[in-house]
Design brief:
Layout lengths: L2 H18 L5 H8 L3 H13 L3 E4 L5 E4 L8 H8 L18 H26 L3 H10 L2
Antiparallel strand pairs: 1-2
Helix pairs in contact: 1-2, 1-3, 1-4, 1-6, 2-3
Length: 140
């Protein structure tokens, strides 16, 4: 699953949990959001591990938000589900022609991507789940 799909699916599930206000099992969340149940369980597991979501067992158990929606920001969600940065430059070890340009161009892009990554993360830190929900509600 691509980074953008994982983030989008995670946000959908979190928005659903924020709107229901009650614990929901993965089957219910899957049906309501259209997210594949297996992929959803993996995402919810990561979100639990990172203390964004909590899981309660039992007849009335299920997943629920561990924090208020206005305390959960997009960058936190992204970091919980991803183990790499938005921009990832593969090593040129596979390149047979290790010329001056290979290392210089790679260094150029590594620096560029690092700066862009910082800008993206700063912007994502300013976007809360509450703001996403408000935007979606206003666009209906």
């Amino acid at each position: 699953m691509s980074s953008s799909t994982k983030l989008s699916n995670s946000v959908k599930a979190l928005c659903y949990l924020a709107n229901t206000g009650k614990p929901s099992n993965s089957f219910e969340i899957s049906i309501k959001t259209g997210i594949n149940a297996s992929k959803l369980r993996k995402l919810l597991s990561l979100l639990c591990k990172n203390k964004i979501v909590k899981s309660n067992k039992g007849a009335f158990g299920g997943f629920s938000l561990k924090k208020n929606a206005d305390e959960i920001h997009l960058q936190e969600i992204y970091c919980a589900i991803e183990d790499r940065k938005v921009f990832d430059l593969h090593s040129s070890a596979e390149t047979k022609n290790n010329s001056f340009y290979d290392s210089e161009i790679n260094n150029y892009f590594l620096n560029l991507f690092e700066n862009i990554q910082i800008e993206i993360e700063d912007k994502m830190r300013k976007i809360t789940l509450t703001e996403i929900l408000k935007t979606i509600k206003n666009n209906k």
